[in-house]
Amino acid sequence: QVQLVESGGGLVQPGGSLRLSCAASGSIFSSYAVGWYRQAAGKQRNLVAAITPGRTTNYADSVKGRFTISRDNAKNTVYLQMNSLKPEDTAVYYCGADLGIRGRAWGQGTQVTVSS
Questions:
Q1: Coil, helix or strand for 100?
Q2: List of residues 6+ apart from 66 with CB closer than 8 A
Q3: Which residues are CB-contacts of 114 (< 8 A; sequence separation ≥ 6)?
Q4: Of 20, 29, 97, 111, which residue is 20 to 30 A from 75 by alpha carbon distance?
Q5: What is the pLDDT of residues 4-28, one digit of tens each?
């Protein structure tokens, strides 16, 4: 059993920055690949960024050069640094841990709104 809690969302102006945090408990977080996903209102949930236990990273084309995913295993936390935010980044952002055969563990999400 893995429990994930996202935090750090909020309202920012275009061009602003936010750092999201995904805090894990209940398991050894360092052994899991973790992704940040987002879901805009009425849209499908899509992968934004992912990081492996070895700290290899992948990004959606729409956020490359603007977002950075990282992890601090000592704190059981994965971060998403979001810079140069655009209105189209507005969504609920979810943290998901890849549990292999057990599927995925999801947090409850944190709202990010980018608007003037």
A1: helix
A2: 82, 83, 84, 85
A3: 11, 12, 13, 14, 16, 85, 86, 87, 88, 89, 90
A4: 111
A5: 999 999 999 999 999 999 999 877 7
